[in-house]
Amino acid sequence: MFWKMTGEVVRVKEVRHGGRKYLGVEVSLPGSPPLVLLVGEAGFAMCGFLDVSAAEKKGAVAVKIPGVGSVEELLEKGIAEATSKAEARGLRKGVRLKDVLDQL
Questions:
Q1: Contacts of 41 (CB under 8 A, 6+ apart)
Q2: What architecture does CATH give domain 10-103?
Q3: Residues whose CB is less than 8 angstroms from the CB of residue 95 and which lie 6 or more positions away in sequence, other chains included
Q4: Which of these, 25, 36, 14, 38, lies nearest to 104 by C-alpha position?
Q5: Are the CB atoms for 65 and 78 separated by under 8 Å?
Q6: Which is it for the CA torsion 96, 91, 64, 72, positive or negative?
Q7: Contact (CB, 8 A) for 101 and 91
Q8: Which of 10, 62, 65, 91 is the most exposed place for a label (fewest CB within 10 A)?
Q9: Rounded-to-integer distance, Cα 11 and Cα 28, Å
Q10: Cα–Cα distance between 61 and 103 in angstroms, integer?
């Protein structure tokens, strides 16, 4: 066994906002804060584990919001980094994700 799994390891959440649905995922990691991801129709938002330069190279609409432990926290905090495609959609640094979620 790679590590002893106790409790929930992966939590999947449906987030509804402005008539749209988003997929939220929280993954417990050993010795680390959780990996937090929110997927929309056009792109995704992720915790500090996101490598924005890699997402940029792949042409993704992606934003990084570090320092969160849940999907709910991800929605309430401001964007720290964004790919150029995300910025073109209004997903810019400093903007609270919840306020521009319809662009994701």
A1: 20, 104
A2: 2-Layer Sandwich (3.30)
A3: 78, 79
A4: 38
A5: yes
A6: positive
A7: no
A8: 10
A9: 8
A10: 9
- Mean pLDDT, the chain, rounded, equals 93
Q: Structural domain boundaries of the chain?
A: 10-103
Residues 6+ apart with CB under 8 A from 97: 38, 45, 63, 65, 74, 75, 76, 77, 78, 79, 91, 104
What is the b/e burial string over 68-104, where b = at least 16 CB atoms within 10 angstroms of the residue's CB?
beebeebbebebebbbebbeebebeeeeebeebbebb
* Predicted confidence (pLDDT) per residue in 47-61, tens digit: 999 999 999 999 999
The pLDDT tens digits of the residues spanning 24-43 come to 999 998 889 999 999 999 99
Q: Among all chains, which residue has been given the structure tokens 């056009």? A: 42
Q: Model pTM?
A: 0.90
